[in-house]
């Protein structure tokens, strides 16, 4: 057992426990609106962020809680932001699906499927011009691989020689549609159309994702082009917090649950260490929720700040 394995378990568990509590918050009204959870997919942000430099900018989707936390956004501020509190992140304006923290190189979530690609291309152009040595990374879903702007960005990045990493989280579904009913070829196969490298990886292993991302980062630098990582995983919850998942075939969740990255990560640990880590994260998350609930509500008179209307 190595320290990295304890870190993987702890970091994935923190994301899982925070999201499970956030789901309760949506259900009991502590969070207004909905939330798109990454339950089952935690190994991808945890592994990828371990391989990226801490200043490498990351762009995520509405399913971006894990990425924000893996980039080091403090849980209290993160939870407060999702609860619409006056957090130091976006003052409650970002919420679950639009939060950002540039101080942690977490450039933000967005709800435009595939919308992270053009943003990341722009970020990558800026970093290349300024010769910062940083490599931006973007997470998208497999469904987003059918969006035009994803292909436009990959083509442009390849032709213009702009290095960035696109991590495709193939989680088995795009909303309520099975990925296999939607996409004719795997994402990694399509990368060849843009003459960029692609690496397929078991997205339920943080160490495998870390290794793939490390290679992707090196390839982005050596080829001076985008590089794709297709991480195969399983969404172990609904598309969003209100999704009853009636479309799932019987037994699917049980079958997919056997691949749960957390169960696997825990099985690699000494049972005493695993249990101590579990208890430590339970206490840490409970404390973070209690402290987030103490954050003040945004001031009513500031509601029109940061909007163009007045
Ligand atoms: C441009 C655009 N089209 C459609 C939608 C509606 N929509 C929201 S999520 C989603 C499915 C995306 O699936 P995928 O990219 O696989 O990501 P996942 O939700 O599985 O993480 C769709 C079609 C949207 N938000 N934006």
Structural commentary:
- The chain has helices spanning 3-28, 43-51, 65-70, 75-82, 95-98, 116-130, 148-160, 187-191, 206-223, 252-257, 261-267, 271-293; strands spanning 58-59, 106-108, 137-141, 165-170, 173-174, 177-178, 197-202, 227-232.
- The protein is an alpha/beta fold and 310 residues long.
- The chain has a single domain, classed as Thiamin diphosphate (ThDP)-binding fold, Pyr/PP domains (Rossmann fold).
- It has a 6-stranded parallel beta sheet, sandwiched between helices.
- The longest helix is centred in the N-terminal third of the chain and has 26 residues, at 3-28.
- It is globular, with a radius of gyration of 19 Å.
- The chain starts with a helix and ends in a 17-residue tail after the last helix.
- Thiamine diphosphate is lined by residues 61, 63, 111-113, 140-144, 171, 173-175, 239.
- Thiamine diphosphate binds at residues 61, 63, 111-113, 140-144, 171, 173-175, 239.
């Amino acid at each position: 057992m190595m320290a990295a394995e304890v870190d993987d378990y702890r970091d994935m568990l923190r994301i899982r426990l925070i999201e499970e509590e956030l789901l309760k918050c949506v259900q009991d009204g502590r969070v207004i609106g909905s939330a798109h959870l990454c339950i089952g997919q935690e190994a991808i942000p945890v592994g990828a962020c371990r391989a990226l430099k801490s200043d490498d900018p990351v762009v995520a989707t509405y399913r971006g809680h894990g990425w924000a936390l893996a980039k080091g956004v403090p849980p209290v501020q993160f939870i407060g932001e999702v609860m619409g509190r006056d957090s130091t992140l976006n003052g409650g304006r970002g919420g679950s699906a639009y939060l950002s923290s540039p101080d942690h190189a977490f450039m933000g979530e967005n709800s435009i499927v595939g919308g992270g690609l053009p943003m990341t291309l722009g970020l990558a152009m800026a970093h290349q011009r300024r010769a910062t040595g940083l490599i931006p990374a973007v997470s998208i879903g497999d469904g987003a691989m059918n969006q035009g702007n994803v292909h436009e960005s990959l083509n442009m990045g390849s032709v213009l020689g702009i290095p960035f990493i696109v991590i495709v989280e193939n989680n088995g579904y795009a909303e309520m549609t099975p990925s296999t009913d939607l996409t004719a070829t795997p994402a990694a196969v399509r990368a060849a159309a843009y003459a960029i490298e692609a690496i397929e990886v078991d997205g339920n292993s943080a160490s495998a994702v870390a290794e793939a991302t490390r290679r992707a980062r090196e390839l982005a630098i050596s080829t001076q082009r985008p590089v794709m990582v297709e991480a195969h995983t399983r969404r172990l919850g609904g598309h969003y917090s209100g999704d009853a998942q009636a479309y799932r075939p019987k037994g699917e969740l049980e079958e997919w649950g056997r691949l749960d990255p957390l169960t696997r990560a825990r099985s690699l640990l000494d049972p005493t260490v695993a249990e101590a880590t579990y208890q430590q994260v339970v206490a840490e998350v409970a404390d973070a929720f209690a402290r987030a609930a103490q954050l003040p509500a945004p001031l009513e008179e500031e509601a029109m700040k940061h909007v163009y209307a007045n």
